[in-house]
Amino acid sequence: MRHSVEELEKIIYAYLPKEKGYASRCISAMNYAFCAGGKRIRPLMMLLAYEMYAGEDRAQARPVDCFMAAIEMIHTYSLIHDDLPALDNDDLRRGKPTVHVAYDEVTAILAGDALLNYAFFTAAKAFSLCPGDQKVERALSVLTEKPGLDGMLGGQVLDCELTGKPIGEEELAFIYENKTSALIECALLCGAILGGADDHEITLLETIGSCVGLAFQVRDDILDVEGDAASLGKPIGSDERNDKYTYVTMHGMEAAKAYVSDMTARAMDALSKLSVKDTQAKEELKELLLSLVERDR
Amino acid sequence: MRHSVEELEKIIYAYLPKEKGYASRCISAMNYAFCAGGKRIRPLMMLLAYEMYAGEDRAQARPVDCFMAAIEMIHTYSLIHDDLPALDNDDLRRGKPTVHVAYDEVTAILAGDALLNYAFFTAAKAFSLCPGDQKVERALSVLTEKPGLDGMLGGQVLDCELTGKPIGEEELAFIYENKTSALIECALLCGAILGGADDHEITLLETIGSCVGLAFQVRDDILDVEGDAASLGKPIGSDERNDKYTYVTMHGMEAAKAYVSDMTARAMDALSKLSVKDTQAKEELKELLLSLVERDR
Fold it and tell me: What's the pTM value of the predicted model, to 2 decimals?
Protein backbone atom coordinates (compact mmCIF):
# COMPACT_ATOMS: atom_id res chain seq x y z
CA MET A 1 0.00 0.00 0.00
CA ARG A 2 1.11 3.54 -0.74
CA HIS A 3 0.49 4.86 2.79
CA SER A 4 1.35 3.06 6.01
CA VAL A 5 -0.54 3.57 9.27
CA GLU A 6 2.71 5.00 10.68
CA GLU A 7 2.84 7.64 7.95
CA LEU A 8 -0.79 8.60 8.50
CA GLU A 9 -0.29 8.82 12.25
CA LYS A 10 2.74 11.04 11.76
CA ILE A 11 0.58 13.44 9.75
CA ILE A 12 -2.41 13.53 12.09
CA TYR A 13 -0.51 13.42 15.41
CA ALA A 14 1.19 16.69 14.44
CA TYR A 15 -2.18 18.43 14.90
CA LEU A 16 -2.83 17.21 18.46
CA PRO A 17 -2.77 19.81 21.27
CA LYS A 18 0.32 19.84 23.51
CA GLU A 19 -0.15 18.43 27.00
CA LYS A 20 0.65 21.53 28.99
CA GLY A 21 -1.08 24.28 30.94
CA TYR A 22 -4.08 24.13 33.24
CA ALA A 23 -6.13 21.91 30.92
CA SER A 24 -3.34 19.33 30.57
CA ARG A 25 -5.29 16.48 32.14
CA CYS A 26 -8.10 16.92 29.63
CA ILE A 27 -5.59 17.20 26.78
CA SER A 28 -3.88 14.05 28.03
CA ALA A 29 -7.25 12.24 27.90
CA MET A 30 -7.91 13.53 24.36
CA ASN A 31 -4.53 12.32 23.16
CA TYR A 32 -4.85 9.01 25.04
CA ALA A 33 -8.04 8.24 23.14
CA PHE A 34 -6.72 9.57 19.84
CA CYS A 35 -3.48 7.57 20.03
CA ALA A 36 -5.11 4.35 21.27
CA GLY A 37 -4.72 2.67 17.90
CA GLY A 38 -7.39 2.01 15.34
CA LYS A 39 -6.99 1.46 11.65
CA ARG A 40 -7.12 5.17 10.72
CA ILE A 41 -9.38 4.21 7.85
CA ARG A 42 -11.16 7.55 7.64
CA PRO A 43 -7.99 9.64 7.21
CA LEU A 44 -6.64 7.03 4.78
CA MET A 45 -9.81 7.07 2.70
CA MET A 46 -9.73 10.85 2.69
CA LEU A 47 -6.12 10.96 1.56
CA LEU A 48 -6.67 8.46 -1.26
CA ALA A 49 -9.80 10.32 -2.39
CA TYR A 50 -7.76 13.53 -2.39
CA GLU A 51 -4.91 11.97 -4.36
CA MET A 52 -7.27 10.47 -6.93
CA TYR A 53 -8.20 13.99 -8.06
CA ALA A 54 -5.24 16.13 -7.04
CA GLY A 55 -2.46 13.78 -7.96
CA GLU A 56 0.28 13.33 -5.40
CA ASP A 57 1.98 16.34 -3.87
CA ARG A 58 3.81 15.42 -0.69
CA ALA A 59 6.24 18.33 -0.54
CA GLN A 60 3.91 21.01 0.81
CA ALA A 61 1.56 21.27 3.75
CA ARG A 62 -1.79 20.36 2.25
CA PRO A 63 -5.25 21.39 3.43
CA VAL A 64 -6.20 17.71 3.36
CA ASP A 65 -3.76 17.06 6.23
CA CYS A 66 -5.81 19.30 8.55
CA PHE A 67 -9.00 17.56 7.50
CA MET A 68 -7.49 14.08 8.01
CA ALA A 69 -6.65 14.99 11.61
CA ALA A 70 -10.06 16.60 12.06
CA ILE A 71 -12.12 13.60 10.96
CA GLU A 72 -10.14 11.29 13.24
CA MET A 73 -10.77 13.72 16.13
CA ILE A 74 -14.49 13.60 15.37
CA HIS A 75 -14.43 9.80 15.23
CA THR A 76 -12.52 9.72 18.54
CA TYR A 77 -14.90 12.11 20.32
CA SER A 78 -17.84 9.95 19.26
CA LEU A 79 -16.18 6.84 20.74
CA ILE A 80 -15.39 8.57 24.06
CA HIS A 81 -18.98 9.74 24.51
CA ASP A 82 -20.40 6.45 23.21
CA ASP A 83 -18.49 4.56 25.93
CA LEU A 84 -19.76 6.77 28.80
CA PRO A 85 -21.62 5.17 31.72
CA ALA A 86 -24.89 6.83 30.68
CA LEU A 87 -24.55 5.43 27.13
CA ASP A 88 -22.88 2.06 26.38
CA ASN A 89 -20.97 1.94 29.68
CA ASP A 90 -17.99 0.18 28.08
CA ASP A 91 -14.81 -0.33 30.10
CA LEU A 92 -12.59 -1.42 27.24
CA ARG A 93 -11.93 -0.01 23.79
CA ARG A 94 -9.31 -1.56 21.52
CA GLY A 95 -8.12 -3.61 24.49
CA LYS A 96 -7.41 -0.55 26.66
CA PRO A 97 -9.44 1.12 29.44
CA THR A 98 -11.91 3.66 28.05
CA VAL A 99 -11.39 7.33 28.91
CA HIS A 100 -13.90 7.49 31.78
CA VAL A 101 -12.16 4.45 33.31
CA ALA A 102 -8.56 5.57 32.71
CA TYR A 103 -9.42 9.15 33.80
CA ASP A 104 -12.91 9.92 35.11
CA GLU A 105 -16.39 10.67 33.81
CA VAL A 106 -16.11 14.47 33.89
CA THR A 107 -12.86 14.32 31.96
CA ALA A 108 -14.41 11.95 29.42
CA ILE A 109 -17.33 14.31 28.80
CA LEU A 110 -15.11 17.39 28.48
CA ALA A 111 -12.38 15.62 26.47
CA GLY A 112 -15.06 14.53 23.99
CA ASP A 113 -16.39 18.09 23.76
CA ALA A 114 -12.85 19.39 23.37
CA LEU A 115 -12.05 16.94 20.55
CA LEU A 116 -15.18 17.86 18.61
CA ASN A 117 -14.38 21.55 18.98
CA TYR A 118 -10.69 20.99 18.20
CA ALA A 119 -11.60 19.11 15.03
CA PHE A 120 -13.16 22.21 13.53
CA PHE A 121 -10.34 24.39 14.86
CA THR A 122 -7.89 22.06 13.12
CA ALA A 123 -9.79 21.94 9.83
CA ALA A 124 -10.04 25.75 9.87
CA LYS A 125 -6.22 25.90 9.82
CA ALA A 126 -6.57 25.06 6.12
CA PHE A 127 -7.84 28.62 5.59
CA SER A 128 -4.36 29.97 6.34
CA LEU A 129 -2.85 27.59 3.80
CA CYS A 130 -5.25 28.57 1.01
CA PRO A 131 -7.12 31.79 1.88
CA GLY A 132 -10.29 32.32 -0.13
CA ASP A 133 -10.21 28.78 -1.57
CA GLN A 134 -13.80 27.66 -2.00
CA LYS A 135 -12.74 24.00 -2.02
CA VAL A 136 -11.72 24.37 1.63
CA GLU A 137 -14.97 26.18 2.45
CA ARG A 138 -17.01 23.43 0.80
CA ALA A 139 -15.06 20.66 2.51
CA LEU A 140 -15.53 22.36 5.87
CA SER A 141 -19.27 22.54 5.26
CA VAL A 142 -19.34 18.78 4.62
CA LEU A 143 -17.24 18.22 7.75
CA THR A 144 -19.80 20.13 9.83
CA GLU A 145 -22.78 18.31 8.30
CA LYS A 146 -22.04 14.59 8.08
CA PRO A 147 -21.01 14.04 11.72
CA GLY A 148 -24.05 15.93 13.02
CA LEU A 149 -27.78 15.51 13.40
CA ASP A 150 -28.30 14.67 9.73
CA GLY A 151 -25.53 12.10 9.97
CA MET A 152 -23.50 10.26 12.59
CA LEU A 153 -25.07 11.88 15.64
CA GLY A 154 -28.60 11.34 14.34
CA GLY A 155 -27.84 7.63 14.08
CA GLN A 156 -26.32 7.60 17.54
CA VAL A 157 -29.41 9.29 19.00
CA LEU A 158 -31.80 6.69 17.59
CA ASP A 159 -29.43 3.85 18.52
CA CYS A 160 -29.43 5.00 22.16
CA GLU A 161 -33.18 5.52 22.28
CA LEU A 162 -33.92 2.05 20.94
CA THR A 163 -31.39 0.01 22.91
CA GLY A 164 -33.26 -2.93 24.43
CA LYS A 165 -36.47 -2.00 22.62
CA PRO A 166 -38.07 -3.65 19.58
CA ILE A 167 -36.74 -2.11 16.42
CA GLY A 168 -37.94 -2.15 12.83
CA GLU A 169 -35.99 -2.66 9.62
CA GLU A 170 -36.34 0.96 8.65
CA GLU A 171 -35.01 2.16 11.99
CA LEU A 172 -32.05 -0.21 11.84
CA ALA A 173 -31.27 1.02 8.32
CA PHE A 174 -31.41 4.64 9.55
CA ILE A 175 -28.98 3.88 12.39
CA TYR A 176 -26.50 2.10 10.11
CA GLU A 177 -26.69 4.69 7.35
CA ASN A 178 -26.10 7.53 9.78
CA LYS A 179 -24.03 6.14 12.61
CA THR A 180 -21.55 4.37 10.35
CA SER A 181 -21.84 5.40 6.71
CA ALA A 182 -22.05 9.16 7.26
CA LEU A 183 -18.49 9.54 8.53
CA ILE A 184 -17.12 7.33 5.75
CA GLU A 185 -18.97 9.47 3.20
CA CYS A 186 -17.56 12.51 4.96
CA ALA A 187 -14.00 11.22 4.58
CA LEU A 188 -14.40 10.44 0.88
CA LEU A 189 -16.19 13.70 0.11
CA CYS A 190 -13.81 16.01 1.97
CA GLY A 191 -10.81 14.40 0.28
CA ALA A 192 -12.35 14.51 -3.17
CA ILE A 193 -13.58 18.10 -2.81
CA LEU A 194 -10.17 19.29 -1.63
CA GLY A 195 -8.60 17.42 -4.55
CA GLY A 196 -10.88 19.19 -7.02
CA ALA A 197 -13.52 16.56 -7.89
CA ASP A 198 -16.67 17.74 -9.68
CA ASP A 199 -20.28 17.14 -8.59
CA HIS A 200 -20.71 13.99 -10.67
CA GLU A 201 -17.76 12.37 -8.93
CA ILE A 202 -19.01 13.55 -5.53
CA THR A 203 -22.36 11.84 -6.12
CA LEU A 204 -20.65 8.56 -6.99
CA LEU A 205 -18.41 8.81 -3.92
CA GLU A 206 -21.43 9.40 -1.70
CA THR A 207 -22.91 6.12 -2.98
CA ILE A 208 -19.61 4.33 -2.42
CA GLY A 209 -19.36 5.65 1.13
CA SER A 210 -22.93 4.73 1.92
CA CYS A 211 -22.64 1.15 0.62
CA VAL A 212 -19.23 0.52 2.17
CA GLY A 213 -20.40 1.90 5.51
CA LEU A 214 -23.42 -0.41 5.53
CA ALA A 215 -21.30 -3.43 4.57
CA PHE A 216 -18.70 -2.46 7.18
CA GLN A 217 -21.32 -2.22 9.93
CA VAL A 218 -23.00 -5.53 9.08
CA ARG A 219 -19.55 -7.14 8.92
CA ASP A 220 -19.10 -5.79 12.47
CA ASP A 221 -22.33 -7.50 13.51
CA ILE A 222 -21.12 -10.74 11.94
CA LEU A 223 -17.78 -10.52 13.79
CA ASP A 224 -19.59 -9.94 17.08
CA VAL A 225 -20.96 -13.47 16.62
CA GLU A 226 -18.24 -15.28 14.66
CA GLY A 227 -15.15 -13.23 15.47
CA ASP A 228 -12.18 -13.93 17.73
CA ALA A 229 -12.11 -11.80 20.90
CA ALA A 230 -8.29 -11.71 21.06
CA SER A 231 -7.75 -10.44 17.53
CA LEU A 232 -10.75 -8.07 17.77
CA GLY A 233 -9.39 -6.63 21.03
CA LYS A 234 -12.89 -6.73 22.56
CA PRO A 235 -15.26 -9.39 23.86
CA ILE A 236 -17.63 -11.01 21.36
CA GLY A 237 -21.32 -11.59 21.94
CA SER A 238 -21.80 -8.08 23.37
CA ASP A 239 -24.72 -7.29 21.06
CA GLU A 240 -26.68 -10.26 22.40
CA ARG A 241 -25.81 -9.47 26.02
CA ASN A 242 -26.89 -5.84 25.55
CA ASP A 243 -30.13 -6.81 23.78
CA LYS A 244 -28.95 -4.95 20.69
CA TYR A 245 -30.87 -5.53 17.53
CA THR A 246 -28.44 -5.94 14.64
CA TYR A 247 -28.72 -7.01 11.04
CA VAL A 248 -27.66 -10.50 12.16
CA THR A 249 -30.18 -10.84 15.00
CA MET A 250 -32.91 -9.46 12.75
CA HIS A 251 -32.25 -11.29 9.48
CA GLY A 252 -29.92 -14.14 10.36
CA MET A 253 -26.31 -14.86 9.49
CA GLU A 254 -26.84 -16.00 5.92
CA ALA A 255 -28.82 -12.90 4.94
CA ALA A 256 -26.22 -10.70 6.65
CA LYS A 257 -23.42 -12.19 4.57
CA ALA A 258 -25.45 -11.81 1.38
CA TYR A 259 -26.13 -8.16 2.30
CA VAL A 260 -22.42 -7.47 2.75
CA SER A 261 -21.73 -8.97 -0.68
CA ASP A 262 -24.50 -6.96 -2.29
CA MET A 263 -23.41 -3.63 -0.78
CA THR A 264 -19.81 -4.36 -1.70
CA ALA A 265 -20.80 -5.05 -5.30
CA ARG A 266 -22.74 -1.78 -5.46
CA ALA A 267 -19.79 0.15 -4.08
CA MET A 268 -17.41 -1.46 -6.56
CA ASP A 269 -19.77 -0.69 -9.44
CA ALA A 270 -19.85 3.02 -8.49
CA LEU A 271 -16.08 2.99 -7.98
CA SER A 272 -15.50 1.66 -11.47
CA LYS A 273 -17.33 4.70 -12.87
CA LEU A 274 -15.05 7.25 -11.20
CA SER A 275 -12.93 9.27 -13.58
CA VAL A 276 -9.73 10.22 -11.75
CA LYS A 277 -6.25 11.59 -12.45
CA ASP A 278 -4.33 9.13 -10.28
CA THR A 279 -5.56 5.64 -11.17
CA GLN A 280 -3.12 4.03 -8.75
CA ALA A 281 -4.78 5.88 -5.85
CA LYS A 282 -8.13 4.57 -7.10
CA GLU A 283 -6.80 1.00 -7.08
CA GLU A 284 -5.52 1.50 -3.52
CA LEU A 285 -8.88 2.88 -2.42
CA LYS A 286 -10.55 -0.16 -3.95
CA GLU A 287 -8.21 -2.50 -2.03
CA LEU A 288 -8.83 -0.59 1.18
CA LEU A 289 -12.61 -0.72 0.84
CA LEU A 290 -12.55 -4.44 0.03
CA SER A 291 -10.32 -5.12 3.02
CA LEU A 292 -12.83 -3.36 5.28
CA VAL A 293 -15.84 -5.37 4.23
CA GLU A 294 -13.90 -8.64 4.22
CA ARG A 295 -11.99 -8.05 7.46
CA ASP A 296 -11.91 -10.53 10.34
CA ARG A 297 -10.92 -8.01 13.01
CA MET B 1 -32.03 50.16 22.41
CA ARG B 2 -31.73 49.49 18.70
CA HIS B 3 -32.31 45.73 18.96
CA SER B 4 -34.86 44.00 21.17
CA VAL B 5 -34.45 40.49 22.55
CA GLU B 6 -37.47 39.54 20.44
CA GLU B 7 -35.75 40.72 17.26
CA LEU B 8 -32.56 38.84 18.11
CA GLU B 9 -34.49 35.69 18.91
CA LYS B 10 -36.34 35.93 15.61
CA ILE B 11 -32.98 35.98 13.82
CA ILE B 12 -31.33 33.14 15.72
CA TYR B 13 -34.37 30.88 16.08
CA ALA B 14 -34.58 30.69 12.30
CA TYR B 15 -31.40 28.59 12.34
CA LEU B 16 -32.63 25.95 14.79
CA PRO B 17 -33.14 22.41 13.46
CA LYS B 18 -36.74 21.30 12.85
CA GLU B 19 -38.16 18.82 15.34
CA LYS B 20 -38.86 15.93 13.01
CA GLY B 21 -37.41 12.59 12.01
CA TYR B 22 -35.80 9.88 14.10
CA ALA B 23 -33.64 12.32 16.10
CA SER B 24 -36.61 14.50 17.04
CA ARG B 25 -36.33 13.93 20.79
CA CYS B 26 -32.73 15.13 20.76
CA ILE B 27 -33.66 18.11 18.59
CA SER B 28 -36.51 18.92 20.96
CA ALA B 29 -34.00 18.93 23.85
CA MET B 30 -31.63 21.20 21.90
CA ASN B 31 -34.39 23.66 21.16
CA TYR B 32 -35.78 23.46 24.71
CA ALA B 33 -32.42 24.57 26.08
CA PHE B 34 -31.84 27.13 23.35
CA CYS B 35 -35.27 28.74 23.77
CA ALA B 36 -35.23 28.69 27.60
CA GLY B 37 -34.62 32.42 27.78
CA GLY B 38 -31.43 34.18 28.63
CA LYS B 39 -30.39 37.70 27.76
CA ARG B 40 -28.89 36.80 24.35
CA ILE B 41 -26.00 39.07 25.20
CA ARG B 42 -23.47 37.27 23.01
CA PRO B 43 -25.51 37.56 19.79
CA LEU B 44 -26.37 41.15 20.68
CA MET B 45 -22.72 42.07 21.30
CA MET B 46 -21.81 40.40 18.03
CA LEU B 47 -24.45 42.28 16.09
CA LEU B 48 -23.46 45.66 17.55
CA ALA B 49 -19.76 44.93 16.90
CA TYR B 50 -20.69 44.05 13.32
CA GLU B 51 -22.76 47.19 12.85
CA MET B 52 -20.05 49.43 14.28
CA TYR B 53 -17.84 48.57 11.30
CA ALA B 54 -20.27 47.52 8.56
CA GLY B 55 -22.97 50.07 9.13
CA GLU B 56 -26.51 48.80 9.20
CA ASP B 57 -27.84 46.60 6.43
CA ARG B 58 -30.99 44.83 7.50
CA ALA B 59 -32.40 44.02 4.10
CA GLN B 60 -30.22 41.06 3.17
CA ALA B 61 -29.28 37.81 4.86
CA ARG B 62 -25.98 38.63 6.49
CA PRO B 63 -23.18 36.24 7.43
CA VAL B 64 -23.31 37.69 10.94
CA ASP B 65 -26.79 36.19 11.40
CA CYS B 66 -25.38 32.65 11.07
CA PHE B 67 -22.63 33.48 13.55
CA MET B 68 -25.08 35.01 16.04
CA ALA B 69 -27.06 31.76 16.07
CA ALA B 70 -23.84 29.74 16.24
CA ILE B 71 -22.40 31.46 19.30
CA GLU B 72 -25.68 31.10 21.18
CA MET B 73 -25.69 27.37 20.29
CA ILE B 74 -22.16 27.06 21.69
CA HIS B 75 -23.17 28.92 24.85
CA THR B 76 -26.22 26.64 25.20
CA TYR B 77 -24.25 23.40 24.71
CA SER B 78 -21.83 24.49 27.43
CA LEU B 79 -24.71 25.07 29.85
CA ILE B 80 -26.31 21.68 29.12
CA HIS B 81 -23.06 19.80 29.75
CA ASP B 82 -22.17 22.01 32.73
CA ASP B 83 -25.45 21.05 34.41
CA LEU B 84 -24.95 17.27 33.96
CA PRO B 85 -24.96 15.00 37.05
CA ALA B 86 -21.22 14.27 36.64
CA LEU B 87 -20.46 18.00 36.57
CA ASP B 88 -22.49 20.59 38.51
CA ASN B 89 -25.55 18.36 38.88
CA ASP B 90 -27.95 21.30 38.63
CA ASP B 91 -31.68 20.65 38.40
CA LEU B 92 -32.73 24.18 37.49
CA ARG B 93 -31.50 26.67 34.91
CA ARG B 94 -33.25 29.99 34.45
CA GLY B 95 -36.07 28.70 36.64
CA LYS B 96 -36.76 25.67 34.43
CA PRO B 97 -35.70 22.02 34.73
CA THR B 98 -32.29 21.39 33.13
CA VAL B 99 -32.13 19.16 30.08
CA HIS B 100 -31.08 15.96 31.89
CA VAL B 101 -34.04 16.48 34.25
CA ALA B 102 -36.62 17.46 31.62
CA TYR B 103 -35.38 14.70 29.26
CA ASP B 104 -32.67 12.30 30.47
CA GLU B 105 -28.91 12.14 30.84
CA VAL B 106 -28.18 10.44 27.52
CA THR B 107 -30.26 13.02 25.69
CA ALA B 108 -28.49 15.85 27.54
CA ILE B 109 -25.05 14.53 26.54
CA LEU B 110 -26.04 14.02 22.91
CA ALA B 111 -28.05 17.26 22.64
CA GLY B 112 -24.97 19.15 23.87
CA ASP B 113 -22.78 17.40 21.32
CA ALA B 114 -25.35 18.09 18.63
CA LEU B 115 -25.54 21.82 19.48
CA LEU B 116 -21.77 22.21 19.37
CA ASN B 117 -21.63 20.47 16.02
CA TYR B 118 -24.67 22.36 14.73
CA ALA B 119 -23.07 25.67 15.70
CA PHE B 120 -20.25 25.14 13.21
CA PHE B 121 -22.69 23.78 10.61
CA THR B 122 -24.73 26.97 11.03
CA ALA B 123 -21.74 29.31 10.87
CA ALA B 124 -20.52 27.51 7.73
CA LYS B 125 -23.77 28.51 6.01
CA ALA B 126 -22.17 31.95 5.69
CA PHE B 127 -19.89 30.46 3.01
CA SER B 128 -22.86 30.16 0.65
CA LEU B 129 -23.77 33.81 1.27
CA CYS B 130 -20.25 35.10 0.53
CA PRO B 131 -18.12 32.42 -1.17
CA GLY B 132 -14.38 33.04 -0.94
CA ASP B 133 -14.81 35.88 1.57
CA GLN B 134 -11.80 35.79 3.89
CA LYS B 135 -13.71 37.72 6.55
CA VAL B 136 -16.01 34.73 6.98
CA GLU B 137 -13.04 32.34 7.04
CA ARG B 138 -11.31 34.42 9.69
CA ALA B 139 -14.46 34.74 11.82
CA LEU B 140 -14.98 30.98 11.61
CA SER B 141 -11.42 30.42 12.81
CA VAL B 142 -12.12 32.63 15.84
CA LEU B 143 -15.39 30.77 16.45
CA THR B 144 -13.50 27.45 16.55
CA GLU B 145 -10.75 28.77 18.83
CA LYS B 146 -12.30 30.84 21.64
CA PRO B 147 -14.86 28.27 22.83
CA GLY B 148 -12.26 25.47 22.89
CA LEU B 149 -9.26 24.34 24.92
CA ASP B 150 -7.52 27.70 24.68
CA GLY B 151 -10.71 29.41 25.79
CA MET B 152 -14.05 28.54 27.36
CA LEU B 153 -13.52 24.79 27.60
CA GLY B 154 -10.05 25.18 29.11
CA GLY B 155 -11.58 27.28 31.88
CA GLN B 156 -14.35 24.75 32.38
CA VAL B 157 -11.82 21.92 32.67
CA LEU B 158 -9.86 23.64 35.44
CA ASP B 159 -13.05 24.75 37.17
CA CYS B 160 -14.25 21.14 37.34
CA GLU B 161 -10.90 19.80 38.50
CA LEU B 162 -10.63 22.30 41.33
CA THR B 163 -14.20 22.22 42.66
CA GLY B 164 -13.97 21.72 46.42
CA LYS B 165 -10.18 21.98 46.39
CA PRO B 166 -7.96 24.86 47.49
CA ILE B 167 -7.41 27.23 44.60
CA GLY B 168 -4.89 30.01 43.97
CA GLU B 169 -5.41 33.50 42.59
CA GLU B 170 -3.73 32.61 39.32
CA GLU B 171 -5.95 29.58 38.82
CA LEU B 172 -9.09 31.56 39.57
CA ALA B 173 -8.00 34.23 37.09
CA PHE B 174 -7.41 31.52 34.46
CA ILE B 175 -10.88 30.10 35.01
CA TYR B 176 -12.60 33.50 34.76
CA GLU B 177 -10.58 34.64 31.77
CA ASN B 178 -11.35 31.45 29.88
CA LYS B 179 -14.70 30.21 31.10
CA THR B 180 -16.40 33.60 30.86
CA SER B 181 -14.36 36.16 28.94
CA ALA B 182 -13.40 33.95 26.01
CA LEU B 183 -16.92 33.65 24.62
CA ILE B 184 -17.56 37.38 25.05
CA GLU B 185 -14.32 38.10 23.18
CA CYS B 186 -15.47 35.62 20.57
CA ALA B 187 -18.76 37.48 20.08
CA LEU B 188 -17.09 40.88 19.72
CA LEU B 189 -14.33 39.59 17.44
CA CYS B 190 -16.56 37.61 15.08
CA GLY B 191 -18.91 40.56 14.69
CA ALA B 192 -16.11 43.07 14.12
CA ILE B 193 -14.22 40.80 11.68
CA LEU B 194 -17.38 40.19 9.63
CA GLY B 195 -18.02 43.94 9.64
CA GLY B 196 -14.54 44.63 8.29
CA ALA B 197 -12.58 45.84 11.35
CA ASP B 198 -8.77 45.98 11.07
CA ASP B 199 -6.24 44.37 13.41
CA HIS B 200 -5.87 47.44 15.62
CA GLU B 201 -9.59 47.48 16.33
CA ILE B 202 -9.58 43.71 16.94
CA THR B 203 -6.89 44.08 19.60
CA LEU B 204 -8.89 46.75 21.41
CA LEU B 205 -12.03 44.62 21.24
CA GLU B 206 -10.18 41.65 22.70
CA THR B 207 -9.23 43.82 25.69
CA ILE B 208 -12.80 45.02 26.04
CA GLY B 209 -14.14 41.47 25.93
CA SER B 210 -11.61 40.25 28.45
CA CYS B 211 -12.29 43.04 30.97
CA VAL B 212 -16.05 42.92 30.60
CA GLY B 213 -16.04 39.13 30.96
CA LEU B 214 -14.05 39.34 34.19
CA ALA B 215 -16.30 42.09 35.59
CA PHE B 216 -19.39 40.12 34.51
CA GLN B 217 -18.18 36.96 36.27
CA VAL B 218 -17.25 38.72 39.51
CA ARG B 219 -20.62 40.48 39.40
CA ASP B 220 -22.12 36.98 39.19
CA ASP B 221 -20.19 35.99 42.33
CA ILE B 222 -21.47 39.10 44.09
CA LEU B 223 -25.06 38.32 43.11
CA ASP B 224 -24.71 34.76 44.40
CA VAL B 225 -24.28 36.36 47.84
CA GLU B 226 -26.32 39.58 47.63
CA GLY B 227 -28.78 38.80 44.88
CA ASP B 228 -32.48 37.98 44.93
CA ALA B 229 -33.30 34.36 44.10
CA ALA B 230 -36.65 35.19 42.49
CA SER B 231 -35.34 37.79 40.06
CA LEU B 232 -32.20 35.72 39.35
CA GLY B 233 -34.33 32.67 38.62
CA LYS B 234 -31.96 30.45 40.62
CA PRO B 235 -31.14 29.89 44.30
CA ILE B 236 -28.48 32.12 45.86
CA GLY B 237 -25.65 30.90 48.08
CA SER B 238 -24.90 27.98 45.74
CA ASP B 239 -21.18 28.80 45.54
CA GLU B 240 -20.82 28.46 49.29
CA ARG B 241 -22.89 25.26 49.40
CA ASN B 242 -20.78 23.75 46.60
CA ASP B 243 -17.47 24.81 48.23
CA LYS B 244 -16.74 26.94 45.17
CA TYR B 245 -13.90 29.41 45.45
CA THR B 246 -14.94 32.68 43.87
CA TYR B 247 -13.49 36.16 43.76
CA VAL B 248 -15.80 37.05 46.65
CA THR B 249 -14.89 34.10 48.89
CA MET B 250 -11.19 34.67 48.13
CA HIS B 251 -10.90 38.45 48.37
CA GLY B 252 -14.06 39.62 50.14
CA MET B 253 -17.04 41.63 48.95
CA GLU B 254 -15.41 45.05 49.02
CA ALA B 255 -12.45 43.97 46.89
CA ALA B 256 -14.84 42.23 44.50
CA LYS B 257 -16.82 45.42 43.95
CA ALA B 258 -13.61 47.42 43.44
CA TYR B 259 -12.42 44.83 40.90
CA VAL B 260 -15.66 45.13 38.91
CA SER B 261 -15.23 48.92 38.82
CA ASP B 262 -11.60 48.64 37.74
CA MET B 263 -12.31 46.16 34.93
CA THR B 264 -15.26 48.24 33.78
CA ALA B 265 -13.07 51.36 33.61
CA ARG B 266 -10.45 49.50 31.58
CA ALA B 267 -13.08 48.25 29.16
CA MET B 268 -14.55 51.74 28.75
CA ASP B 269 -11.10 53.20 28.15
CA ALA B 270 -10.44 50.73 25.32
CA LEU B 271 -13.93 51.31 23.95
CA SER B 272 -13.33 55.05 23.75
CA LYS B 273 -10.37 54.37 21.44
CA LEU B 274 -12.36 52.42 18.87
CA SER B 275 -12.69 54.09 15.52
CA VAL B 276 -15.97 52.99 13.98
CA LYS B 277 -18.36 53.89 11.14
CA ASP B 278 -21.57 53.66 13.13
CA THR B 279 -21.07 55.65 16.34
CA GLN B 280 -24.62 54.97 17.49
CA ALA B 281 -23.88 51.22 17.51
CA LYS B 282 -20.80 51.96 19.61
CA GLU B 283 -22.93 53.90 22.11
CA GLU B 284 -25.37 51.02 22.30
CA LEU B 285 -22.54 48.54 22.84
CA LYS B 286 -21.27 50.77 25.65
CA GLU B 287 -24.71 50.81 27.28
CA LEU B 288 -25.00 47.04 26.94
CA LEU B 289 -21.60 46.38 28.50
CA LEU B 290 -22.31 48.75 31.38
CA SER B 291 -25.67 47.10 32.01
CA LEU B 292 -23.95 43.70 32.26
CA VAL B 293 -21.43 44.68 34.88
CA GLU B 294 -23.98 46.70 36.88
CA ARG B 295 -26.83 44.18 36.60
CA ASP B 296 -28.74 42.87 39.59
CA ARG B 297 -30.03 39.71 37.88
Answer: 0.96
Partner-chain contact B17 A149, CB within 8 Å: yes
- Cα–Cα distance between B121 and A38 in angstroms, integer? 27
Cβ pair A107, A99 in contact under 8 A? yes
Domain boundaries, chain A: 5-292
Backbone angles phi, psi at B236, to 5 degrees: -95, 170
B140 interface with A at CB cutoff 8 Å: yes
Cβ separation A132–B127 shorter than 8 A: no
> What residue type is B271 in one-letter code?
L
* Cβ-Cβ contacts under 8 Å, B118 against chain A: 148-149
* Amino acid found at A25: R
- Can you give the pLDDT of all 297 residues of chain B as single tens digits? 889 999 999 999 999 999 999 999 999 999 999 999 889 999 999 999 999 999 866 557 789 999 999 999 999 999 999 999 999 999 999 889 999 999 999 999 999 999 999 999 999 999 999 999 999 999 999 999 999 999 999 999 999 999 878 899 999 999 999 999 999 999 999 999 999 999 999 999 999 999 999 999 999 999 999 887 777 767 778 777 777 789 999 999 999 999 999 999 999 999 999 999 999 999 999 999 999 999 887
The pLDDT assigned to A57 comes to 64
Chain A's closest residue to B87, CA to CA, is A106
How many other C-beta atoms lie within 10 A of the C-beta of residue B134?
12
CA–CA dist B96, B101 (Å, integer) = 10
Q: Does B292 touch chain A (CB under 8 A)?
A: no
* Touching B: A residues 54-113, CB under 8 Å: 77, 81, 84, 86-87, 105-107, 109-110, 112-113
Q: What CATH topology corresponds to B5-288?
A: Farnesyl Diphosphate Synthase (1.10.600)
Question: How far is the C-alpha of A127 from the C-alpha of B144, rounded, in Å?
Answer: 12
What is the topology classification, in CATH, of domain A5-292?
Farnesyl Diphosphate Synthase (1.10.600)
Residues in chain A: 297
Contacts of A140 in chain B (CB under 8 A): 124, 127, 140
ipTM greater than 0.90, yes or no? Answer: yes
Report the chain A residue with the minimal C-alpha distance to residue B173. A22
Distance CA A285, CA A271 (A): 9
Q: Give chain A positions within 8 Å (CB) of B137.
A: 124, 127, 131-132, 136-137
Average pLDDT of chain A?
Answer: 94
A interface mutation test: which of B149, B171, B179, B186 has the most A CBs within 10 A?
B149
Give the residue on A whose Cα is nearest the Cα of B127.
A137
